[in-house]
């Protein structure tokens, strides 16, 4: 078979382009740290890479959700602890006032302190996180504790759960139900006021304050003590619920962190290039490219133009 100059040139250029293409691929790996530029470079591997990326996005979303839940539960527990401390103080004050030797002036001083504690509890009940009221149920856009048209305190929250996804088909309520803490319907108002206010903690403390300031009252303070204990029971029950959810979130977050690490490692194994091997390939390809240029310069015969220079 006769080998012409054109055939030699074509063969040389084909080989040169092939080496240049390999160098381009290697250069991409060096600059990005990834093995594959296009899906067709390794279809099966790229399917697994996309699966791992999708899984990692979901895990990151669950991690973010658990962090938000932790913030809400920690603030809820802190607020509930404050409510518990205030009610314990109110209980002590009732016991001090429920004494035959307590003077009218001492009872009025006790009433003033309870009034201040009541104002503090109103602020605690309206605790917010990022502008959302944590004890209002699903009505997070407005204060749960507010006055009604009769001048009594009214609870505007509800018993709705703010459920947040922490895993596939698994949700946890991140809010604490203020209704379980600040509202009770299992007692009767001392003195039977008309109109009867809502049976919440704030109206109860207002009633207690009024009774202590009234020198002619015949109300038994033991009744107020029993109602205080009911509110304390509600606080403790809600704190137990918050604590149980907080423990679950801690375990879930720990598992997600471990799973996130495993998925990231699997993704790296399939997507990341072996940089040591890539550097070696680049050096080899550079040498081959230079050798091809040198060989081509010798193989391709001089043309008439070279002799006319």
UniProtKB/TrEMBL annotation:
<feature type="domain" description="Flagellin C-terminal">
    <location>
        <begin position="226"/>
        <end position="308"/>
    </location>
</feature>
<dbReference type="GO" id="GO:0005198">
    <property type="term" value="F:structural molecule activity"/>
</dbReference>
<keyword id="KW-0975">Bacterial flagellum</keyword>
<keyword id="KW-0966">Cell projection</keyword>
<dbReference type="InterPro" id="IPR046358">
    <property type="entry name" value="Flagellin_C"/>
</dbReference>
<dbReference type="Pfam" id="PF00669">
    <property type="entry name" value="Flagellin_N"/>
</dbReference>
<dbReference type="InterPro" id="IPR001029">
    <property type="entry name" value="Flagellin_N"/>
</dbReference>
<comment type="similarity">
    <text>Belongs to the bacterial flagellin family.</text>
</comment>
<dbReference type="GO" id="GO:0071973">
    <property type="term" value="P:bacterial-type flagellum-dependent cell motility"/>
</dbReference>
<feature type="domain" description="Flagellin N-terminal">
    <location>
        <begin position="6"/>
        <end position="140"/>
    </location>
</feature>
<keyword id="KW-0969">Cilium</keyword>
<dbReference type="InterPro" id="IPR001492">
    <property type="entry name" value="Flagellin"/>
</dbReference>
<protein>
    <submittedName>
        <fullName>Flagellar hook-associated protein 3, putative</fullName>
    </submittedName>
</protein>
<dbReference type="GO" id="GO:0009424">
    <property type="term" value="C:bacterial-type flagellum hook"/>
</dbReference>
<dbReference type="InterPro" id="IPR013384">
    <property type="entry name" value="Flagell_FlgL"/>
</dbReference>
<keyword id="KW-0282">Flagellum</keyword>
<dbReference type="Pfam" id="PF00700">
    <property type="entry name" value="Flagellin_C"/>
</dbReference>
């Amino acid at each position: 078979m006769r080998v012409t100059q054109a055939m030699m040139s074509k063969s040389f250029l084909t080989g040169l382009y092939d080496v240049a293409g390999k160098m381009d691929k290697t250069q991409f790996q060096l600059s990005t740290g990834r093995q594959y530029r296009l899906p067709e470079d390794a279809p099966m591997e790229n399917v697994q890479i996309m699966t791992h990326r999708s899984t990692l996005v979901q895990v990151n979303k669950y991690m973010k959700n658990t962090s938000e839940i932790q913030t809400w539960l920690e603030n809820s527990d802190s607020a509930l602890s404050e409510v518990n401390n205030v009610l314990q103080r109110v209980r002590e004050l009732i016991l001090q006032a429920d004494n035959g030797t307590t003077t009218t002036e001492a009872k009025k001083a006790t009433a003033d302190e309870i009034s201040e504690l009541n104002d503090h509890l109103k602020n605690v009940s309206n605790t917010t996180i990022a502008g959302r009221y944590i004890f209002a149920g699903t009505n997070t856009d407005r204060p749960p504790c507010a006055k009604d048209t009769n001048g009594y305190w009214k609870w505007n929250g509800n018993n709705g759960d703010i459920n947040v996804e922490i895993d596939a088909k698994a949700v946890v309520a991140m809010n604490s139900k203020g209704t379980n803490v600040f509202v009770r319907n299992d007692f009767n108002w001392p003195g039977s006021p008309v109109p009867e206010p809502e049976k919440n903690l704030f109206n109860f403390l207002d009633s207690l304050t009024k009774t202590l300031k009234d020198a002619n009252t015949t109300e038994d303070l033991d009744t107020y003590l029993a109602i205080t204990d009911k509110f304390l029971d509600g606080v403790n029950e809600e704190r137990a619920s918050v604590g149980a959810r907080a423990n679950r979130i801690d375990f879930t977050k720990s598992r997600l962190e471990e799973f996130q690490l495993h998925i990231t490692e699997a993704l790296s194994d399939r997507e990341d290039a072996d940089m040591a091997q890539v550097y070696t390939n680049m050096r080899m390809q550079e040498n081959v490219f230079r050798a091809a240029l040198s060989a081509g310069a010798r193989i391709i015969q001089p043309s008439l133009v070279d002799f006319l220079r």
